[in-house]
Design brief:
Chain lengths: 332, 426
């Protein structure tokens, strides 16, 4: 039996996952600022409030810490909350509940409880929203044992990974790049799950491995198409999950291509790509490297408001083409 | 215009060499890529391939005579060309120097004298595996850093690392960009059988041909089953860094290609099968038996003539080259084993119809209507989406007998495969 496959946007795919999860399981409910009649800051929850009512699609006060606390408490007592933070930047306010409570309680209570909580965080720059609404903070959360951190790239993965995250017994942080919400792709109807710990090879190639997730993965794929015209075959790996990180897939690829380029929107220093680079240097792939590992990350600067500077502050497709080309040609 | 045949430089420090043996005599036809003569250097004997199609002319050097690298040893002319003997012993322009630099250049390169040598981890590993002293190599990377390619400039050559277990011998007939075409030959043949067709395909793309187990320079290591052959093909492509490919298979190689495509559909962008085996039980069992039993050149040549409608299409030179190769490395035992396993008692014991139905990519089958080895009628009942090209007046060797048409069919299918892959990734 094959499910009907439609073209859905990333936002529609997420909304569909939320609806399926709520239909299938009474314990699932949504919380967040303006997710009810307003439909969410990025219109992800849309009209779900009319379908499921205000008890299951709850507008919360403008208190991220309060909302997160309620969500953690509800999860602890057997509910399956999905909490939307309007912007991932506002996670700063909810950090205590996420890092000190949600991530720790299973361990501190000897495994007698778990926190089946999903927090959705719109992330990234490109919308002209300036320094306090444009950051990429994935690495903060990926640094915390006890959390799972995912960053789907395609509508297909967004739906499948969110359904898997809601079914997961532990807290999962889902980063959704704002520029991806309108991107479209095939999404099967009905329930399916995409695993929370497997990277995906999005394009195969022999000359250089590019690891990039979210919007950076789609830019890497554009870059790979340009590179192919020059005879450089880039392999593009989408980690999909940043914690746990599927290093086995990346190691295998680097052993094949001998060159690694990590692309991420978060600030370059101490970012996800720094972790991947170090893990490769420690792995069996080290002896296969034929060039230094390169990172393309965000500038060491708050995201500027000026559109030109905002663009310049994070890797763009031509930057990826140039870096991969230099690597493949042995110019690094 | 006549093409010079020169004594090539086949290893780094070769200055002179001598010709041991000509595979083709003066005035005979040659096909680009077929073995032309064998040379001997201080280190090894090696077959040199014809640089062009045509007639061999102007062979003046003596067998065993020591010649400088670059010496002109003959010419290949067009059939109707009037050949004027050139000045004997003329030395052609020297071939470009090999990538290895002269010792004095090392002092200024990245490879310093004491321990400050700069080399990538991969270059170091290759050097270690092949017991090469890195300080004898000059690096072409930034600031003279030694890269893997400096250690082994020719991966297919003597200095490449040992292939992983299970990998077959293969050769890049052409290097290029984009998804390469991989060629899988038929029973009793080897990768050299693709050379005539290769010249008809447009340039720019990589062409990789492999020797099936028990053929050419690949030994039969494992069981003689289709599944084992598929695994060997996979190991070979992995070793070559081929992640996706267009596959062209002939006869038994067509069956191997079909089984491979069904097992690894993502890696096979398009599949073109020339007179593929595995479509039905009937098979000219006498051919395999006779081919394997043939002791002399005459009997073997007689069996080879069964392959084509017009034996001229195979070319006398081709038959001769096959005989020479077979004399050198007969594989009779291995091929007898393969025949006993895959087509016992004159019947094809395997079928690839299911595999053909399950492979979803662009698939074309080319069959000669006068095929005397496998009957063209077996193409009845292929899945509807398969494009079938039935060639009149052609036998079992479309890639020899109908080169231009076969090349065109392959090119079309390759383009379809690329379009489909691009549509999917976009």
């Amino acid at each position: 039996m094959s499910a009907i496959v439609r073209e859905l946007s990333y936002a529609q795919a997420i909304q569909e996952a939320l609806a399926i999860a709520m239909e299938d399981d009474e314990r699932v409910f949504l919380m967040g600022e303006d997710i009810g009649v307003y439909g969410g800051a990025f219109q992800v929850t849309g009209d779900l409030v009319h379908r499921f009512g205000e008890d299951r699609v709850m507008d919360t006060p403008i208190s991220e810490l309060g909302g997160a606390g309620v969500a953690v408490g509800a999860a602890l007592t057997g509910m399956r909350p999905v909490f939307e933070l309007q912007f991932s930047d506002f996670s700063t306010l909810a950090m205590e509940q996420i890092v000190n409570q949600a991530a720790k309680l299973r361990f501190m209570l000897g495994g007698s409880v778990s926190v089946p909580l999903v927090i959705r965080m719109p992330t990234g720059s490109g919308t002209g929203a300036a320094a306090q609404h444009s950051q990429s903070l994935e690495a903060w959360f990926a640094h915390i044992p006890g959390l799972k951190v995912i960053e789907p790239t395609t509508p297909y993965d967004a739906k499948g990974m969110l359904l898997a995250a809601i079914a997961d017994p532990d807290p999962v942080i889902m980063f959704e790049h704002k520029l991806l919400y309108k991107s479209k792709g095939p999404v099967p109807a009905g329930r399916y799950a995409v695993s929370l710990d497997k990277a995906q090879v999005r394009r195969e190639g022999r000359d250089v491995t590019i690891v990039a997730s979210g919007i950076m993965c789609s830019r890497a794929l554009d870059a790979a198409a340009t590179l192919a015209e020059e005879g450089v075959e880039a392999e593009v790996i989408d980690p999909r999950s940043l914690r746990p990180l599927d290093m086995a897939t990346i190691v295998q690829s680097v052993k094949k291509t001998s060159r690694l380029l990590c692309v991420y929107e978060g600030v370059k220093t101490l970012g996800i790509g720094a972790e991947i680079s170090a893990a490769i240097a420690e792995s069996e792939a080290f002896a296969y490297l034929d060039a230094p590992i390169l990172r393309l990350g965000g500038a060491e600067s708050p995201i500027p408001y000026s559109p030109i500077l905002e663009k310049a502050a994070v890797p763009q497709t031509p930057d990826i083409v140039a870096a991969a080309r230099r690597l493949a040609r042995g110019q690094v | 215009m006549a093409v010079e045949v020169i004594l090539p430089r086949v290893d780094m420090d070769m200055e002179t060499g001598k010709i041991n043996h000509w595979f083709v005599a003066e005035g005979e036809a040659v096909v680009k890529g077929m073995p032309l003569f064998e040379i001997e250097t201080d280190k090894a004997a090696m077959e040199i391939e014809a640089p062009a199609d045509g007639i061999l002319r102007g062979v003046s050097v003596k067998i065993g005579e020591t010649l400088p690298v670059g010496a002109v040893v003959g010419w290949i002319c067009a059939r109707d060309e009037i050949f004027e003997a050139p000045v004997p012993g003329a030395v052609a322009e020297k071939p470009p120097a090999p990538p290895q630099a002269a010792p004095e250049a090392l002092q200024s390169s990245g490879a310093g004298a004491n321990g400050d040598l700069r080399a990538t981890p991969k270059a170091r590993r290759w050097a270690r595996e092949q017991a090469i002293d890195l300080s004898s190599i000059s690096g072409t990377g930034p600031d003279g850093r030694i890269q893997a390619k400096d250690v082994a400039p020719n991966r297919a050559g003597l200095t490449s690392p040992p292939p992983p277990r299970g990998a077959l011998h293969g050769e890049w007939l052409a290097r290029g960009a984009g998804t390469p075409i991989v060629f899988v030959h038929g029973f009793g043949a080897d990768l050299n059988g693709w050379r005539p067709l290769h010249g008809y395909l447009s340039a720019g793309r990589g062409h990789f041909a492999l020797d099936l187990p028990g053929h050419g320079q690949s030994d039969l290591m494992g069981p003689a089953t289709l599944e084992a052959f598929v695994e060997s093909v996979e190991a070979t492509l992995v070793a070559e860094g081929v992640t996706s490919a267009h596959i062209v298979g002939h006869s038994l190689g067509g069956a191997v290609a079909a089984a491979y495509a069904a097992a690894r559909p993502v890696r096979v962008r398009s599949l073109t099968l020339l007179a593929p085996a595995g479509l039905g039980p009937e098979f000219n069992g006498a051919f395999a038996t006779g081919f394997l039993a043939a002791q002399g050149d005459a009997s073997l040549a007689a069996w080879l003539r069964q392959l084509a409608v017009d034996e001229a299409a195979l070319g006398a030179a081709m038959v001769k080259a096959t005989l020479a190769r077979r004399a050198e490395r007969p594989h009779v035992e291995a091929q007898t084993k393969i025949a006993a396993s895959l087509f016992p008692d004159g019947a094809q014991a395997f079928s690839v119809r299911t595999q053909l139905a399950s492979y979803g990519g662009p698939l074309r089958v080319v069959f000669g209507l006068e095929d005397r080895i496998l009957p063209a009628a077996q193409t009845r009942g292929l899945p509807g989406a398969v494009a079938l090209h039935l060639l009149p007046n052609i036998g079992h060797m479309p890639h020899f007998e109908a080169r231009a048409v076969t090349a065109e069919i392959i090119e079309d299918n390759v383009a379809a495969g690329d379009r489909r892959a691009a549509a999917r990734s976009g």
